[in-house]
Amino acid sequence: MALSRRSSSGWHSRLAPALALALAFLGACRPDEGKPARTLARVHAAGQFVSRVALDASGMALLGVADRDELQVWSLRTPETPQVFSAPPAGPLILAEFVAPERVLATTASGSFSEWNWLSRALTYNHKLYAQGVAAHSPDGRYLAFGGVIWDRATERDLFTMAVREQTALEFSADGSHVLSAGRHPSQLLVGELPSGRVFQHRSSEDIRVAALNGRGDRVAASLRNGIIRLFRVPDFHLLGEFWGNSDPAGLAFLEDGEHVVTAGESCVEVHAVATGWKSFHSEVNGRITAFYSSADLAVAGTSEGKIWIWDLAKAKTLASAQLAPSAIRAVALSPKGRRAAAGDETGAITVVDW
Q1: Quick one: how far is CA 183 from the chain centroid?
Q2: What pLDDT is recorded for position 291?
Q3: Are the C-beta atoms of residues 268 and 284 closer than 8 Å to each other?
Q4: Preceding amide of 235 cis, omega within 30
Q5: pLDDT (tens digit, 9 = 90+) per residue, 76-104?
Q6: What is the pLDDT of residues 18-41, one digit of tens each?
Q7: Is the peptide bond before 195 cis (omega within 30 degrees of 0)?
Q8: For 73-99, b where at least 16 C-beta lie within 10 A, e where not — what string?
Q9: pLDDT score, position 23
Q10: Is 126 exposed, middle or buried (0-12, 13-18, 19+ CB in 10 A)?
C-alpha cells in the first residue's frame, strides 16, 4: 500500500506541471476581449436583416437600413432614442451614410442619389447617374460615383469615367484627392485624380477580390484570389510589398498613417506594414466575421455568434467586446470621436454601445 501511495504521488507531481502548461497555452489562445462594452440604445429597423448602419461624426445620430430598404435616423441625445427621420423605399439601397452635419445620403441600385437634411426632413439634393456597379461619395460630399461615372456636384458635370467590369471596389481617399475603382475580367485597378480627371491604370493577371485606397490617395492595397495582399504606389503602381492574407477578406483598409493595412479574415484581424509586409498585430475572435468597418485607427467587427469586437489598431490593442444578439451581426459602424459603435443583426435590431 505504501508503494502504491508513493507511485500515485509521483504521477501527480509529474502531471501538475504539464497540466499548468496546457492551461496556460489555452489561456494564451483565448481571444482578448478587452473590457465589456456598455449598451447605450437599441432600436428596431423597418424589417429584418439589417444591411447598413452608420453613426454621425458626433456619435449622437444613428442611421439604419434593413431588408425593406427604408432609411431611418434616430437621435441618441435622449435615452428614449426617438426616430427623427424616415425616407420611404425608392428601390434597393446600396449606400446610406451621413455626409455632413444633419445630412444623410442614399443611393439606389439604379443610380439615384438623394440627400436630405434629416433634422428638417427636407430633400436637399437629387441626381441620377446612369451606370452599374458600386456607389461612393467623397468625404465632403462634393463628388459622387456610381460604377465608372464620377460626378462633381459643385460644377454639375461628369468629370470622367472609370469603367470596369464586375466592379469589386469604389472608394474615395480621405482627403478627397483621388478615387479608386477595381474590377474583374479583366482584373484591373484604376485611380482617378480629382479634379484633373487623370486616370492611372494597372492590370493584374490575378483575380482582384477586394481593394482599398489610403487617405492620401498614393497607396493601393489589393487582395487577390490566391490569398496574397499586394501593395502598390500611385501613380506608377510600383509594387511596394506583399504578404499572405485571406483570399476573400471581410475587410481591407489602410490605417490613418497610410503605411499600414488592416485585413479582416474569417476569424481574425491583422495589421501589416506596407513597406515590409511585417505583421504588427493579430487578434482572434470567436465565430466567423460577418461585418467589418474601420475608421482612422479604430476598427469594429461583428460575428456569426452575435458579438462585436472593437480594436485600436495603431496601439495593437483590443478595446472592448460585447454579446449583442442571438443571430449574426450583419452591419457595423464606428464614431471614433464619440467612442461609440453600432451593430445591426438578422432580427432587425440595431444596438449602440460605448467603451
Answers
A1: 19
A2: 98
A3: yes
A4: yes
A5: 999 999 999 999 999 999 999 999 889 99
A6: 444 343 333 445 789 999 999 999
A7: yes
A8: bbbbeeeebeeebebeeeeebbbbbbb
A9: 38
A10: exposed
Rounded to whole angstroms, how far apart are CA atoms 184 and 165? 6
- pLDDT tens digit sequence for 193-238: 999 999 999 999 999 999 999 999 999 999 998 899 999 999 999 9
Locate 299 and state its grid cell.
476598427
Instruction: Return d(Cα 258, Cα 235) in angstroms, integer.
Output: 15
Please give the model's pTM, rounded to 2 decimal places: 0.88
d(CA 346, CA 163): 34
Sheet holding 219-224, edge to edge: 208-213, 219-224, 228-233, 238-244
- Among residues 48, 97, 41, which one has the least CA distance to residue 68? 48
Strands 52-55 and 167-172: unpaired
pLDDT over 60 (residue 128): yes
Selection from 288, 276, 282 nearest residue 263 by Cα: 282
Mean pLDDT to the nearest integer, 279-295: 96
What's the Rg (C-alpha) of the chain?
Answer: 23
Cell 447605450: give the residue: 40
